[in-house]
Amino acid sequence: MASKHFLRLPLAAALLLLSAALPGWAERQILVNLKDRYLYVLDLDPAKFPAEIASSALVLKAQPDAAKVLGKFPVAIGAPESPTPTGFYSILEKIKDPTYYSHSKNALLPPGPCNPVGNRWMTFKGADDNAYGIHGTAWPEWVERREAVSKGCIRMLNADAVKVFDLVKLGTPVRITRD
User: Fold this and answer.
1) Which residue in 12, 14, 46, 53 has its CB near the most CB atoms, within 10 A?
2) pLDDT of residue 68
3) In this predicted structure, what is the pLDDT of residue 137?
4) The pTM is what?
5) Of 78, 168, 179, whose CA–CA distance to 130 is shortest?
6) Which residues on adjacent β-strands are paired with residue 77?
7) Whole-angstrom Cα distance, residue 159 to residue 164?
């Protein structure tokens, strides 16, 4: 009978392995649940993710209180014909008071209360290489009803978009799930 050998690693070594094994590992992360239509900002405590190496594989065992929810925000998501992509991404760009280009009107819309993307924009790219955003909106009722109306973006109330914008930095991992 073969025996299994486990090697417990110190925290620094475990985090180094985590960063190599799990691209996008960071202490602060965004989780978007498309089923309940909420965006969560999580603060993860790496000390509560003890790691072990078993047969050359990294084994993580998160403790129940490993993640602290810094915020839970309602969102509107992509319409059925242009769904929000699921998967792992990261924040590539952050823009305060963005200008919006309307393809239907062939016009630039300046920052302000009528701007369709609200007062904050955070870019992430999908597997299809399209750019999507986590952003505010000029239509808060869509978010309040948590509708599926966008072209894949994640719409938030403007005040909530500001909170998330201030909580995250470039490179913050974004995980979008259906459940």
Assistant:
1) 14
2) 84
3) 96
4) 0.77
5) 78
6) 148
7) 9
Q: Is residue 155 within 8 Å of 73, Cβ to Cβ? A: no
> Domain map of the chain by residue range?
8-177
Q: What is the pLDDT of residues 67-117, one digit of tens each?
A: 788 999 999 999 999 999 999 999 999 999 999 998 888 989 999 888 999
Could you tell me the fold of the domain covering 8-177? Answer: L,D-transpeptidase catalytic domain-like (2.40.440)
Mean pLDDT over each residue of the chain, to the nearest integer:
82
Residue 47: what are its φ and ψ, rounded to 5°?
Answer: -70, -15
What is the secondary structure of 16-71 as a DSSP string? HHHHHHSTT--SEEEEEETTTTEEEEEEE-GGGS-EEEETTEEEE---TTSEEEEE
Cα distance between residue 45 and residue 47, in whole Å:
5
Give residue 158's identity as a one-letter amino acid code.
N
Provide the pLDDT confidence category of residue 1 given band limits of 50, 70 and 90. Answer: very low
Buried b (16+ CB within 10 A) or exposed e, 110-146: eeeeebbbbbbbbbbeeeeeeebbbbbbbebebbeee
Q: Which tokens is 1 given? A: 């009978």
Number of residues written out for the chain: 179
Specify the residue for token string 């405590």: 45
The amino acid present at 34, given as its one-letter code, is L
Q: Which residue has the higher pLDDT, 158 or 63?
A: 158
Closest CA to 28 of 177, 171, 176: 171
